[in-house]
Amino acid sequence: MKQPTRRSFIQTGAVAGGSLFVNPVTLFSNPLETIKPEIINKKVYKSRDFTTEVLVAGGGMTGISAAISAARNGAKVILVHDRSRLGGNASSEIRMHICGASIMTGKPWRETGILEELVLTESVTNPQRSFEMWDLILYDKVISEPNITLLLDTVVFEVETEKDRITSVSAVCSPTEEIFDIKSEYFIDCTGDGSMAAQAGAEYMRGREGRDIFNESLAGDKSDNYTMGNSLLFFSRNFESPMPFNPPAWAKKYSSGDFAHRRISSWEYGYWWIEIGGLGDTIKDGHGLRHELLSIVMGVWDYIKNSGEHPDSENWALTWVGMIPGKRESRRITGDHILVQQEVQSPVLFSDRVAYGGWPLDDHPPEGMGKTSISPFRSISLKQPYSIPLRSLYSRNMGNLFMAGRNLSASHVALSSSRVMATCSALGQAVGAAAAECLKENISPKQLATDEKHITHLQQILLRQDQSLLGVLNSDPDDLARRASVKASSQTDTGKAENMLDGINRDIDDGKCHQWQAEMAIGNPWIELNWDKPVTMNQMQLTFDTGARRHLRLTGQDAVYKNQIRGPQPECVSDFIIEAHTSGGYREIKAVKGNYLRRVVLNFNEISTDSIKISVQKSNGDSLARIFEIRCYNE
Asked: Which of 38, 226, 502, 625 is deepest in the core (most CB within 10 A)?
């Protein structure tokens, strides 16, 4: 019998299934002479070139908001994300709930804008509270934007620069065996780790600053390289019959003393305090940290099931265990301004403010579960939200690089508040609009932030797109409604018609009402804008109440917001009719049914009118018709 020939794929370049194997493995096969040279293709990964205007790296909640914001402001956008599903820490792969300023008890500061649009859509289309459906909602929102090209499963691995500007990036998509070379005018790093910025040579900070660096009372005596760690979550459910658990040999072992500072009261959703990694490198040590976290999860579940301390867990079993740790901290890119503790606790109204935060100063010891004898966190609540400047959202040494998310320019102490996803989403919306504005005006991020005319214009764009800004009122010169007078069929004692034109389109902490309100019981209440002479318009924007004043304290129970009603929010107007007065009297120009969004933009054929009437036909359950703001434009 003829003996088979043994050869190395590396030596021969033989192919199997059309792909070149690059691992130095050997096998037995037919003799080499049976392989035809013309079918050998050494270049398995094909190259594709892209040219765009804004490149967003990272498709978590920050990157999603940045990409949508830039696209809606007219920029051509490529969004590159290293996973197969969007959402980052909020996706079904990690399942962290979205936190933000709504944590402030009794305060109405829930983030609005793009995040509110996503959350309201989720509450209506995902009543089952499925994280996988949340993934799909995010995907749908992104691909529905005609200006966005989405590249999933794609990682930026190389950055080209000229002087102080990024010119292009190279990214690889291993599932499709493609390498993308992407040229762009502006770049936004929403990777969390700041990896694109670091590859570009952007200056960055890491670790904890000592008290002498920024004079922060919550900082330690000396600077070090420690950070907050990573966490791994799990899900479980009651199967209504005994469900035994035998831990793997590598599971950690715990006793009751390990949970003196870590509360176990329910176990359907894992614990944020299953945390480790702050003493090392949360990026480079990622593989080892994942195994360490898995061993902790197995050990905690073993304790719950088998210690005898939690007999109610007898019928419970794990249904999902995360394999991707959620990160809290790594690199922070240095901007022209570094946000610090004092500016979080004693808020400053920065002239270039483009977003706000409100989560507590919530710092975690780097030891995590490695030191169970101490509390897993230090949380200092805030009395009011604080503004975040654009100067903290672009690189100080790379002229066309923005960053948003937990890689913003902030001290370690300030980051302990600004790192949460609702805040990061607002930062993403801000830099997306900023990048589009820089593109239109052919200016740098620094010029945008420091020129009064430019930054004022950007702030008005953000307000128009429902990004709330502390202390900034609607002064948009293009808003025709600001020139009108207003009257209504009826109003409540506090919800006066004129409130709708006061420049504030939400509840704030001033004790005043900033919306028109009328009793639905009177039958189709209406509000009317009147001009001294006809105006020409083709677009209206209405801002409705979606329940932000309800106390929305967050939870880990697989929901975006604990008290977010599953379905349309009752305060929101559902059905309404818009009529315009012309020489022939009033005529209908738009009728809307089934609305559940806070911000509604309506486009129509250009009209000339001296009066617009909005008649509310139905709310989503509330006894009042409520409208915060009406804007009118001729685009």
From this structure: 625
How far apart (Å, rounded) are the C-alpha atoms in residues 197 and 202? 5
Contacts of 24 (CB under 8 A, 6+ apart): 8, 9, 10
H helices within 362-468, ranges in order?
Answer: 412-418, 421-441, 445-450, 452-464
Of 94, 137, 119, nearest to 425 by C-alpha is: 119
- For residue 598, the one-letter residue type is R
Q: What are phi and psi of 295, to 5 degrees?
A: -65, -30
Q: How crowded is the C-beta side of 549, counted as CA atoms within 13 Å? A: 17
Scan for tokens 């009297």, then name that residue.
Answer: 585
Q: Report which DSSP code applies to 2.
A: P
Encoded tokens for 427: 């930062």
7 pLDDT above the threshold of 70: no
Work out the burial of residue 561: count CB atoms within 10 Å of its CB; fewer than 13 is exposed, 13-18 middle, 19 or more buried. buried
For residue 397, give the 3-state DSSP assignment.
Answer: coil
Q: What pLDDT score was predicted for residue 42?
A: 59
The answer to whether residues 295 and 249 touch, using CB atoms and an 8 Å cutoff, is no
Positions of E strands within 477-572: 485-488, 516-519, 526-544
Asked if 135 contacts 85 with a C-beta cutoff of 8 angstroms, the reply is yes
Q: What is the mean pLDDT of the chain?
A: 91
Tokens (6 digits) for 372: 């169970």
Query: Residues 251, 307: contact at Cβ < 8 Å?
Result: no
pTM to 2 decimal places: 0.92
Tokens found for residue 532? 């001294």
DSSP secondary structure letter of residue 304: H
3 state SS for 256-282: HHHHCCCCCCCCCECCCCCEECCCCCC
Contacts of 5 (CB under 8 A, 6+ apart): 28, 29, 30, 31, 32
Tell me the C-alpha distance between 89 and 326, whole Å: 6
Would the pLDDT of 293 be above 80? yes
Q: Count other Cβ atoms within 10 Å, centred on residue 55.
A: 31
Residue 318 corresponds to which tokens in the numbers above? 């794990």
Closest CA to 417 of 509, 341, 480: 341
Comparison of pLDDT for 540 and 3, the residue scoring more: 540
What is residue 333's three-state secondary structure? Answer: strand
The helix/strand/coil state of 11 is helix
Residue 6 has pLDDT above 50, yes or no: no
pLDDT at 39: 53
Is there a contact between 14 and 32 (Cβ–Cβ < 8 Å)? yes
Element (H, E) at 110: none
Q: And the tokens for 598? A: 């806070």
Query: Tens digit of pLDDT for each residue in 358-417?
Result: 999 999 999 999 999 999 999 999 999 999 999 999 999 999 999 999 999 999 999 999
Give the closest residue to 108 by CA, choosing from 482, 599, 504.
504
